[in-house]
Amino acid sequence: MKRNLKVRLEWRSCERASQTLNNPLRQRECQTEPPPRANFSATANQWEIYDAYVEELQKQEKNKEKQRTLPTRKEEDKGKKKTVVVETQSDDITKVAKVAKIIERMVNQNTFDDIAQDFKYFEDASDEFREQEGTLLPLWKFQYDKAKRLAVTALCWNQVYQDLFAVGLGSYDFTKQGRGMLLFYSLKNSTFPEFIFPTLSGVMCLDIHEKLSHLVAVGFYDGCVAVYNLKEESPQPSYRSTAKSGKHTDPVWQVKWQKDDMDNNHNFFSVSSDGRVVSWTLVKNELVFTDVIKLSMEGAVSEGPEGPQPAMMACGTSFDFHKQIDFLFLVGTEEGKIHKCSKAYSSQFLETYDAHNMAVDTVRWNHFHPKVFISCSSDWTVKIWDHTIKTPMFTFDLNSAVGDVAWSPYSSTVFAAVTADGKVHIFDLNINKYEAICQQPVVAKKKTKLTHIEFNPVHPIIIVGDDRGYVTSLKLSPNLRKKPKEKKGQEVPKGPEVEIAKMEKLLSLLREPSGNAHI
């Protein structure tokens, strides 16, 4: 009886084991859960982007400090670590500053996208229905809050970076002289300057080096000249003239870079109301000056202490160097005369033109024709000259004091002028020899005076400065930059020879016995 019972128990346990269930098969992709998701949207401006970068920077600094603060290090090593942390933090801040500047440009370009599109693509369709007249389309307006009460006294485009230009700020009123400012703006960011240099005296003129675009020559109201280097972070100029080093005794009205000398030293020229035209050479850490010519009322000049001294000095107001002939240059004076001078022959003027009844504000050689130059004055006139003839070829009366005039870089017959009544006048002598093809006010307030104008070397735009510290950029309509139409099967000739021929054709008509053209 006992044996039979034992067998039954073993058989039951074996039966239970046979009834065990198998685990179900599962696919691998079902073993993980998907990450949580959420939809988020917001409007990001430049400040939020900047705060995000700063927050990320602080997190990185905390992680660096945790890794560097090890318990086995000595106290001296900890001090070293702290200095290293400060250095890396400053380096990171500079990186953030560069990134923030790029982001700022992107935000501004998105904000002013309609203006950017006009700058690139817009062409005034109404020009097709006007044979001769054109218009100016306002683009960006450049303003710096700390320069509100200063006037724009100088404008200059950068020849290497064509979107960058320099603005000199000061005052033409001798009773309101004080501080000045040198600003650099880019078309990529109209809200804030790229570089800012405050000055103790008002900036009267400036010129950017044609090849070394980081060098900027500046002339001041107190008679000093200086050279700023944009590669250096210092707000002070790299070179500056002093009373010991030949500083002018009156305001400097114009500066111009010239070719390097025989020793490959950079040099520029300046003209001032003290009657001196001075050559400045950058030698090591100082400016070395040489008096090129001294202006006088009678026409005689002096070569130095041994030469003849003039009875009364004339006041220089503007000058320009010939584009092809290196030694030849023109000097405008406060008495309304223009002198043709030579660097090599400084004892006498080559020619004197009785140009204007008031001070010559600007004189400029034509970019293409080697004989032609233009001048303007506060006597309301703009005159075009052939330097081989003592009388003007063209005279234009603009009914207001003319602040500045400039030749266009794309045509030998196109020039622009600004007047004290807030208007921009653009002429194309090839289209109309008597009237402007565009005469347009560009300032909101009637009492605002325009002071300077410059053509962009590449783009079809101009920049205009006024006496309230504003700089306005304007796009030229197609009629203001007309090109000859191509005929079927014929290519239109291009190049400087064509531009010289256009101007020469006009001059040949005026050289006939019928007389000069006075408008």
UniProtKB/TrEMBL annotation:
Which GO BP terms, alphabetically?
cilium movement; determination of left/right symmetry; outer dynein arm assembly
The protein's location, in the record's own words, is: Cytoplasm, Cytoskeleton, Cilium axoneme
Q: Note one Pfam family from the annotation.
A: WD40
Q: Which GO terms describe its molecular function?
A: dynein heavy chain binding; dynein light chain binding
> Does this entry carry the keyword Manganese?
no
Q: How does it assemble?
A: Consists of at least two heavy chains and a number of intermediate and light chains. Interacts with BICD2. Interacts with CFAP45 and CFAP52. Interacts with CFAP53.
The UniProt entry's sequence similarity note says:
Belongs to the dynein intermediate chain family.
Function of this protein? Part of the dynein complex of respiratory cilia.
Q: What is this protein called?
A: Dynein axonemal intermediate chain 1
Q: Which organism is it from?
A: Megalops atlanticus (Tarpon)
